[in-house]
Amino acid sequence: VPVFEALAQKYDNIVLDVFSSYKIYGWDQADAQFEELYERCRQHPRINYHGFAKNDEVRAALQKAHIFSYPSIWLECNCKALIEAMSAGLLCVHPNYGGLIDTSGGITAMYNWDQDINTHANIFYAHLENAIKIVHEDQVQNYLQFQKQYADLRFNWTKVLSQWDSLFRSLYDQYKDSDLSL
Prior knowledge:
Blueprint: H1 2-10, E1 16-18, H2 35-43, E2 47-49, H3 55-64, E3 67-69, H4 80-87, E4 91-95, H5 100-104, E5 109-111, H6 117-134, H7 138-154, H8 157-175
Parallel strand pairs: 1-2, 3-4, 4-5
């Protein structure tokens, strides 16, 4: 939010849509720790705080967006939001942290994560500002079509289901005659 606030002072054509809430996990009370930040979003004229929204609503919003800014500080193993943003053809700006590296396939606008929150914010600022400047260039738009194809092929549900099915069948075959009781 502070990075967006600073960039909004330089660029009058940017808007931030925030979809963030622990309600997605059924932990409604956990949002209380971020209420001050959420209120800061609500008060900013160019930040739209949506809180929790159903996946269809989020995906519809992605179709209207240009940049997916995700300065994650959480060590994730995979990121559905990043996959969907890549598939929507957005310029994805995020750190090379945890599973974001593998999820992105290294083809997004990934930057070096830093554990110091202020250093991280400054690095993110520079990369997000660059994204704002280049997102509409033809070369970038062509590249984002490649990124979309990559995400759509790599994370295709038919392919993913086939991989899980293969894993479960091999585990079953390996252990079907074993006594697994404790």
